[in-house]
Amino acid sequence: MRKIDRLEDELGCKLFIRDQSGLSLSDEGRSLLFDVEQMERLSFNIFRRASLSTDTQGSVRVAVTEGPGNFWILPRLIDFQKTYRRITVDLSCAMQQADVSRLEADISIQFERPTNPEVIVTKLGRLHIYGFVSEAYRDAHGLPTSLADLRNHRIIKQHGVQLDETGYARILGLESLEGIVGISTNSSVAVLYAVERGAGIGFLPTSAIALGAPLVPVDLGINYHMDLWLTYHKEFRSSDRHKVVIDWLKRIFDPKVHACFRDEFIHPVDLVPLMAETRDIVGFNGYVAPKPV
């Protein structure tokens, strides 16, 4: 509040109306807002253009959700950096969506399709989600035979800013998940680990088994999907290093090459032979969580 008061004193006008409900913009504040947003946009353009280069060297900031970032992009990034030794990929893996128009990242891979006309948007593929348990959980508790039988099991729930909080109950056809959720976490890595340790039923990408996770699919006749959108500011079309990274990201998510990203649903077991080569090259080998002790 003191910073707002100081700003108003310096400008010589009241930007906000203060009442019991909090702060709201005054007429003067609303009139200044457009100009301030224009100033911000122009300043971002200056910084963005300063980072453009016709040389394939420098840093490229890529923001992506945690699962695809850790388990799909990162293993392939190792070979990429061997080929393009002068490009540094700054990979940010988080569920918080980055706004490329505000320079929060150069390139973003996200579940929500951007509507800003200043950015370029390309659909990379479709991420299909399915229920899984560990072999130990199946042997100890069996598998649910129907949606109603889910109440006799435990669910590991992932929550996050890009995830639909009501989606679980709606997709599973339940009024609520009360008494069913054993663990709720914002981390897809934690979900995978908890499933592998036999904590319950977790919902993971259909590619989990194909990539080497020793899991058992839970066949309840339901699956869920989210589209993956690649987005970047249109001015980065003039930057060679950004074009290299963008083209590379499109290749590693190409549904024609990687069946798990096709629009049509493919059962996790059926994906195994379709992704055998991918598993041999960049499967789950080397991760701690898939091989708990």
Automatic annotation (TrEMBL):
It comes from the Bacteria. One of its GO terms (biological process) is DNA-templated transcription. Residues 1-26 form the HTH lysR-type domain. GO terms for molecular function: DNA-binding transcription factor activity; sequence-specific DNA binding. Coiled coil: none annotated. Keywords: DNA-binding, Transcription, Transcription regulation. PROSITE patterns: HTH_LYSR (PS50931). It holds the Pfam family LysR_substrate. Belongs to the LysR transcriptional regulatory family. NodD regulates the expression of the nodABCFE genes which encode other nodulation proteins. NodD is also a negative regulator of its own expression. Binds flavonoids as inducers. PANTHER family: HTH-TYPE TRANSCRIPTIONAL REGULATOR, TRANSCRIPTIONAL REGULATORY PROTEIN. This is Putative transcriptional regulatory protein, LysR family. It comes from Bradyrhizobium oligotrophicum S58.
